[in-house]
Each structure stands twice: as structure tokens, then as C-alpha cells.
Structure prediction request, 950 residues.
Amino acid sequence: MHKFIDNIVAFSLKNKFFIFFCTAIAVIAGAVSFKHTPIDAFPDVTNTKVTIITQWPGRSAEEVEKFITIPVEIAMNPVQKKTDIRSTTLFGLSVINVMFEDRVDDFTARQQVYNLLNDADLPDGVTPEVQPLYGPTGEIFRYTLRSDKRSVRELKTIQDWVIERNLRSVSGVADIVSFGGEVKTFEVSVNPHQLINYGITSLELYDAIAKSNINVGGDVITKSSQAYVVRGIGLINDLEELRNIVVKNINGTPILVKNLADVHESCLPRLGQVGRMDEDDVVQGIVVMRKGENPGEVIANLKDKIEDLNQNILPKDVKIVSFYDREDLVNLAVKTVTHNLNEGILLVTFIVLIFMADWRTTVIVAVVIPLALLFAFICLRVMGMSANLLSMGAIDFGIIIDGAVVMVEGVFVALDKKARQVGMPAFNVMSKMGLIRNTAKDKAKAVFFSKLIIITALIPIFSFQKVEGKMFSPLAYTLGFALLGALIFTLTLVPVMSSMLLKKNVREKNNRFVRFINAKCTALFDLFYVHRKLTIGLATVIAGVGLWLFSFLGTEFLPQLNEGSIYIRATLPQSISLDESVTLANKMRRKLLTFSEVRQVLSQTGRPNDGTDATGFYNIEFHVDIYPEKEWESKLTKMELIDKMQEDLSIYPGIDFNFSQPITDNVEEAASGVKGSIAVKVFGKDLYESEKYAVQIEKILGTVQGIEDLGVIRNIGQPELRIELNEGQLARYGVAKEDVQSIIEMAIGGKSASLLYEDERKFNIMVRYSEQFRQNEEEIGKILVPAMDGTMVPIKELADITTITGPLLIFRDNHARFCAVKFSVRGRDMGTAVAEAQKKVNASVHLPAGYSLKWTGDFENQQRATKRLAQVVPISIAIIFIILFILFSNARDAGLVLLNVPFAAVGGIVALLITRFNFSISAGIGFIALFGICIQNGVIMISDIKANLP
Prediction:
């Protein structure tokens, strides 16, 4: 190894122009890589996931679970390298997430799911869909539509048939999620009295419409030597044609649809509503980016397309108005990183200039910084990785250039010594290549092994799993690549530049600052050397006390990235109607707008029509866009603003509030499986029993200081009007069960009989009873069903009509039902808060057989990452010891270097206590880097001491 390092230095000094040529190639390649490397504010921290969405309108949560969720989960069992199967089931919707192990690529995961999805035994007409390829950090743009004269129904139609199609064509866009507005349909509102008058059943009306809307082909006929395509045109073109469809002919008199029903334009039952600022009902579009794409490029192309839509395609009165733009956050992150990089480069360069007091040595050292960064971008580009605020902001320029400092300082001192020996005139004309080569070779060994040790110290970061692995592995790779680049340039370019710039007039200047430092350090060394035993004893005590102080540090998973927004989730009683929920949402949105720190607010009630967000009317989400904190006249902190908002919103009783940030909220939900940063899951088959224990746990958690945003995500709470068919009565009246179910589905919920086309747009033709004939149990009981003998029987004679409260949501994790208690921790460290909560819950809650508890979310991530650090850090230190043993060829010197580690840890612990920071995984990574640096310092120190011993 030593010979290999010597040969690198010798080759570089012998082939100077080749080294400069390679450096120029690296600069060009690095600049190109930097331009094309995706840069985002936040890494995608979730494992590969495939989401299966299945809609079955009008069905209860238990029915959807039984006939869709469970069969699909069973079909997914053979999927290889999966870690979890999570599902959320509610009225008319099933959402199943298949989670995979680290390093499973998306294509492999999705291919497995597609292949096995066909094995699921599902009801007729139900088709599951796989969500497009994007993650919880994929949201890049939100907008609403604005028009002075169009209704939300018209705007929703434009959104679905014009805007969505155009935006989906933008390269890198995975999906457009439409939220709010009314989905246009054409409704045949049946009057049952008219059906009775004409002796027509609702099924006959339905069949007539379904069969009267079709085109046929008659092949080809030949006429006058020309081939004519034969077409039978029967499609319905407008409402008038729909009204004039013949349902039945009675004694030569046609009975038309308009004789039996009111035909008009309508909309599907609304599942959600969006409000923005003072507008209570708007149409929103959410643009999500495909995984792995460059957000800068995608957003730029997206904005070009939106500009084209606004200027050339949309009606003049319709405009797309931006609400959220990820580019703002990306620009802020890039600005922050660039500011830190510039400050770091200038600061390091200034310090090098102070200590070396020579512009030539400063230039040689400083040039390594940009070259190392460009090399890192080349490696990131080759590996297909992105850069983000965490990975770029964590680069320590001191670590990058310390090898170059050692190399240049060693060469400079050797040349200065030679100049003093022979005199400056003789020195300026003599050949110095041999001296530079020998000195560079001598320093190169310590530099090489020092860098190797720091890279080895990063092993614990590479070993992280799941969320922490996705978050910090880019940091480790970026820093590792930068260190590797710095090592390469230190062993090649630095000796070459030293040989060219340090040819003449090399003299170590009389630096007062350095002389002062040397004098004080020498005096301290003399003092400690005289009192060696006392020094060793005192150092041991300091190390012991310092490590003991670690027990006083609080713990948390990660410090929060400030996204410049607040995301508020309000959970209302489960049985609330959409109208009442929207009323509350409007009031809360206007209250949030009263804060001077708030720029704009958007509210979402319920869920979008495509089923991508499994929630109900009880769920309201507020995206609160705030001004930069430096512009706040109130001088509040963000946490204080949140506290004030929570206080003002507390006037609404019975509502649980959760405060987060847009990206953070999505990541937390993806990590825990529920809408909350930390959750306690109560597993058990009986939902009523599980919810009872969840309520008990909620009361206990309410007594723990620091726990906020506390609430039970309830499973039970959906009022049901149950029509339970009586088999005996069906047999008595001679009524087919299928006929009863079909009429219930059509008359109450509405059923699509066909489609009406308007150019390339198509809309459902819904057949449904008029509202006054289905608005309560009494009216529903009067709905008539045809018997086999032609008589009409009211439903109340065939079924028991009752109201019950059933499941609203059914959560499942690996085939087991659970109820969850969600909460956050503010004003206290997460570790001690959750530890206290666990102690109290374990002491008071005693679950019966078949029930269990699991703590998930950020706490689970923190525990897993801490455990991994405890396992891998000792292994990393052992590997470093082996490297040190190879370098020094004895265990004494290797052990002496490792003694730096506990003292470095003590300094870090004291710094965290003084600054009142908790020990997070980020801090743990800082300690890992610190250990590498302190070991490097020990290597350089002992190498120099041994080199100067007689």
C-alpha cells in the first residue's frame, strides 16, 4: 500500500501536464454533472411502495373490506421482498399499500403486483388500479381554477377534460389529482308515481335507456364501384334525445322517458370540497412528480405548459392560478446551501491564509474545495443520485482540505528549511523536485490513511434502513465522494501545483497569531508533561463525567426542515355531513387568514374523486402559506405562531387538530400508516373493543407533558341505514333478491345506464329516484319492486329497515385490523416523552389475549436508527483500529489514536447541552464525522512525532 501511494505521487510529479489535463476534464465533467443532477429540498425517504386503489361506490366499509381489501391482500401474499401490506378501507373505497425492502426497484415491485393482481377474486365490475409511480415527496405544484362567470361544475369539466390531459403530457409528471368541484352527469330523476300510473318498473326504464344509446357497424357494401362503410347511428346526442327514448308501447301509445322522469344536467354525489382564501368552493389540481425526476426541469416544463394553457387553450375567462410551487422551496434550499458553501469556502480559505501567510499555499489548498465538489457531482450523476439540502449542507470543507493542508504545509516547511540552509539566491536556482517528491511521499501516507479512516467512519450511515437510510445515505455518499475527490487531488494535483508555484522565495513568515498559538500550546504541554499522572487522572474523570452527561440529553428522530408553510389537519366527528364540515372549514380558514404572518390559506374537506386520499367528510386539511419569518412584525417564532393558531382554533369543540408541514405530513403518513407523526396502534379483530382501548390510551397520553395533537383515529362512527332482506318474505311474494338489490342500488344511490358524448368528452347518464322519494326510511320503504307475477311490492314488506352505527374506517396492517391513537411531541424531546407515555400505558392498559400494541412513526424510526448505530459504530471503530494497525504496525500507537474518540464525544455532548439541542439521528451523524476527524488528527500528530524522534 505504501509503495502504491508513493508511485501515485511520483507519477503525478513526472507527468504534470497530464495531471492538469485530467483536472480540466474533471472540471468540465463536474460542471455538466452539476447542471443535470436533480436538486431537491427534501429526499424521498420512503421505501419502494405500490398503492392499489379500488372503488366500489355505495358499499359500506365492512363490505369493501370483505369483498375487495381482503382478497387483494391475499393475492399480494406471494409478492417477494415485501415488508408490509397496509390497507385503509372506508365507504366505497379500498386503498392497499404494499411496502418493499430497501433497494427493491420500482419496476420489479410494480411488475410483481401487476402479475398477481389478476388472482384477486373480486366482484363483477370492480377493477383495481395501481397508483402512478410517485412518492410522498412527489407533490410539486398546486393550483386552483378561477373564472368570473363559470360554475364549479363547468370548471371541473374543464379540469378533467382539458387541463389534466395537457399537464399529464409534461415529461416527469406522474399524475394530476383533481380535488373539489362537481363531476358533471346527466340524471334521469324518476317519479315512482308515474311508474305506477303507466305500470312500468324502474328496471324497465333503466334497460330502455341502456339499450337506446348505441352505434353499430354493418360492414361494407359496394355501390357504383365504391366501397361504403355501413353504420347504424343510435347514440344519444343531447338531453332532448334522452327525454324522447321510448320505454314501452301501451296500446299503440309510446311511453317516453320524459313521461316518467325529469331529465336534467346534474352531478355525482360530492366526496369533497376545496376553499381558497375568501372563495368557499373552487376546483383544485395537485401535480405530482414521477420518482427520480429532476424537480427543477419538471417544474420549468410544467410552468411552460400552464402558460400555454392560460394564453392559448383555455377559455378567456378561465385561468390557472398557482397556490403552491415546490420551486420556491427548492430555490430556498439551493440559496441556503450556496450561501453556506460560499461562506465555508471563504472562511476556510481565510483561516488557511492566516496560518500559512502565503498566497501560493492558500491557492493550492483552496482549489481542492471546488474540485472535490465537482468530483462528488460526477459520482452522483454516475450513480443516478440526486442532491438535496441535507446532503449538500452537511459537507465540511475542513475535512475536505485538511489533507491538502498537511501536504502543502509539509512541502512548504521542508522548502523553507532548505532555503535557510543554502540561502535564498542558491535556493531559487537549485532543483527542488527531489525534496518535494520525498516530502510529498512522506505526507501522502498519513493523508491517505486519514481520508480512508474518515470514509470508514461513514459506514454506520450507509447501514441505516428505511426512512433514516433514504434520508442520510445521500449525505454519506456525497461526503464520501467529496472526500475521495479531495484525496485524489491531494495526491496528484497538490504536489504538482506545489512544484510549480513554490519554486522561489519560499520563506515561512513570522506570524504573530501562529507564534502565540504555538507558545500557549507548548506551555500547556510542558505543564501537563510535568504532571503526567495528574493529567491522565483528570482526563479520565473528564471523559467519565462527560459521557455520563449524555444521559441528560433528550432524544428525537430528526430536526424539522422549515418548509415555509404550516399544514393543519382537523379531525371532526365521523358522522358529520359534507355540508356541515364545509361550513366549519370555511370558518376556520377565515380565522387563519386573520394572522398577519399568513399569506394565503387553502382548505380541503373530504377526499378527491379518484380515491388517492383515503379519508371522509370528517377530515379537513389546511395548507397555510406563511411569509418568511424575518418579515413578521410580531417577532414570533414559528412554534409560537402554531401555539396561537391552536389556541384560536380551540373554540371549536370536539375537533382534534394536528400541526405539521406539507411534505412532512405526507412523509409521516407514509411512515406510520396513519395521519400523524407518532401513533399507537391497537391490534385486534373486534373494532369496537380496539377503539375502547384506544380511548383509554388517549386519556393516559393526555397526562404526559409535551404530547400535543392528541386524538383517536376512530373506526366506528358511520351511521348506516340498513335494508336487511327477509328471505321468507321474498319467497312469499315471489320476488327475486337480485331485482330488489338492483332497485335499491339504482333508486337510492343512482346507477349509470349509459354515456352521453359531447365531442370527445363523455358523461354518465344516471338513473335515480327524485330526492323527495328517497330522503328518509319511510320513503325508501315505499319503493316498489316487481314480483315474478307482475305485481309490485314495497321494499318495507320485503326487508327490515333499521339504522345502526357501523365502521367508518377499517385499518389493517399485515392482515390484522387495528385502531390508532395519533399524537405529536412539542416543547419536549420525543424520547423521554414517549418513554414516559409507554411506562404509563403499560402500567394501566391490560389487553386481553389476541390484542397487542405497537408504537410507530417517528419514534419507531428513531429507535431503529439508534439501535443500528449501537450495532455498527463499534464495528466501524474496530475496522478503523485495523487500518491504524496497518499504518503504524503496532497496537500501541493505534490504541493511542483511538483514545481521542471519548474526548471528542465529551466535547460534542457538552456542546449539545449548552445549545439545548436534543440528541437526534442528525446529531449522531455529526458525532460519526467528529470521530473520523479526531482520529485523523491523531494519525497526523503521531506520524509527525515519530518522524521527528531521534
Summary: DSSP finds 34 helices and 33 strands in the chain. The CA atoms of residues 458 and 476 lie 6 Å apart.
